[in-house]
Design goal:
200 residues; 2 strands
């Protein structure tokens, strides 16, 4: 094995393990104007059959989502720190070998290089497994989040007599929706009340 095998380790050691908390986080961006409109919206008349929820506001104000987001940001940061520490330790080991390689017998150099190659492969496998496990956990929790919101909205709509609850976000296919159909504030209030009960 040639020493150049280990030169790319710096990139490997510092590579991000996963993307942070799913596509939901990307949808979190919202304008102040949108937020103000959502906050000031009155309760929708029971005669309305189709209403909507502002998804941007829902994600930024739903406490369960915020806790979940913080949890995965910490897990991602911890995983990256762990991987970086392991990579740096390996780099030090490689550097020490390279420094002493000229004084080592040929068979010792060969054995050491084979061992270092195996260790590098193990680190790469560890990185892939750690990233995959975190992504899987994230997917499961995102599904739970969706089910929790959808389940609440199903009951909420039935109680209010609504026939359809649409999800609105800036740039969606809904180009205009009357603000009197916006039930976001009421839904966020109910979701947070339910979540607070489960935490106690």
């Amino acid at each position: 094995m040639e020493r150049r095998t280990f030169k790319n380790l710096g990139l490997f050691a510092t590579a991000a393990i996963i993307t942070t908390f799913s596509a939901c986080q990307n949808k979190e961006t919202k304008t102040t104007e949108t937020a103000k409109k959502t906050d000031s919206t009155a309760v929708v008349s029971a005669s309305e059959k189709i209403v909507f929820v502002n998804q941007d506001s829902l994600l930024t104000k739903y406490e369960y989502y915020k806790d979940l987001k913080n949890k995965f940001e910490k897990k991602t940061k911890d995983a990256q720190s762990d991987m970086q520490a392991k990579g740096q330790a390996f780099q030090r080991e490689v550097a020490q070998y390279q420094q002493n390689a000229g004084t080592l017998a040929a068979d010792v150099r060969k054995t050491t290089e084979e061992r270092l190659a195996r260790k590098q492969q193990e680190l790469q496998t560890y990185q892939q497994n750690a990233g995959g496990a975190l992504q899987n956990e994230q997917a499961v929790e995102t599904e739970k989040l969706y089910d929790k919101v959808a389940g609440y909205l199903k009951t909420y709509a039935k109680d209010k007599g609504y026939k359809m609850v649409l999800s609105y976000t800036k740039g969606s296919t809904i180009l205009f929706a009357d603000e009197t159909l916006d039930i976001t504030s009421d839904v966020i209030k109910g979701l947070n009340e339910d979540y607070t009960k489960t935490k106690k």
